[in-house]
Amino acid sequence: MDIIDTVWQYIYKYYISGIINDTSYNPVDTLTYAILLGISLFGVLKLLDKLRVEVDTRFIIAVTPYVLAGSSLRVLEDSNVFTPPLRYLFITPLIYFFMFAVTVGILALAINLERKGKIRDYHSFFCYAGIAWTVINIAALLATGEVKNPVPAAAILALGVITTALVYFISLRLDFTLLTNKLNISLLFVHLLDASSTFVGMDWLGYYEKHVAPTFFIDLAGNYTDHPSLVMYPLKLLVFIPVLYMLDNKFDTDKEKKLVDLLKLAILVLGLSPATRNTLRILMGV
What CA–CA distance (Å, rounded) separates 258 from 136? Predict the structure, then answer.
């Protein structure tokens, strides 16, 4: 019984407590979720192969509204629209499982309708369904709250665009084709948008960072500057430029290319999801 109690206390402390109280992540759950993500990618790759789905630019565009839908749903939870135990479903990591299940369900429906001749292209149906879901979530946010910080929210978008444009034009001058590639620079944009949301949220409005690694580097930068969250910009570049380089240059076979495309989709989700959530939270003042 003591062993069972000890294990339960460990699970509660490092996993369940963070979900129930919606608190910052810790090294244990962060590492666990990272491992689960890596394992899940191979499962997703097999699932997409079974559905005969190619992870190309069209598919990534079609999936993007579901990232926005998930982020806006998360902000509805932040706004206390949902009550326990339902609200726990919309807190990380549970919301990722929920969004994955719904997204795959709609994707399978769209593919089935195309194969039966009911629709011409499953990409369009799939994409429009995601857009409709996002619009409903945004409407619910506006109906239950009010826009309180339009200027900081606009500043996040502006900073994301400016920093990405700066990187893009420097890459053009240096003929650094890795970051003049449309998909790669788009991926970098969503992560620089995430960095901008962290900077504006922390530096302007007193929000705090929940993730372990960014918190470590922000705290470290605090020893040298009064604006430590600015460290997120070089941190994003130092992490994702080498990652994108390896993805574009170290994989050759068709199977490896499929994995690369899926990894880039994962990178998109990991950047756009927090960027959108942070920006909407700031916009609504929650």
Answer: 33
The verdict on residue 132 lying in a domain is no
In a domain? residue 227:
yes
- The continuous run of DSSP H or E covering 248 comes out as helix 232-249
Q: Is residue 94 part of a domain?
A: no
What is the sign, positive or negative, of the torsion defined by CA atoms of 53, 59, 60, 65? negative
Reported as a single tens digit per residue, the pLDDT across 184-237 is: 999 999 999 999 999 999 999 999 888 888 999 999 999 999 999 999 999 999
- Going by the DSSP 8-state scheme, the letter that residue 250 receives in this structure is S
Q: Is 250 contained in some domain?
A: yes
Amino acid, res. 81? V
Taking only the tens place, the pLDDT of each residue in 39-70 is 888 888 899 989 989 988 899 999 999 999 99
Total domains present in the chain: 1
pTM for the whole structure? 0.91
Contact 64, 58 (CB under 8 A): no
Contact between residue 193 and residue 156 where contact means Cβ atoms under 8 Å apart: yes
Domain limits at 209?
A: 150-286
Closest to 199 measured CA to CA, from 164, 153, 168, 237 = 153
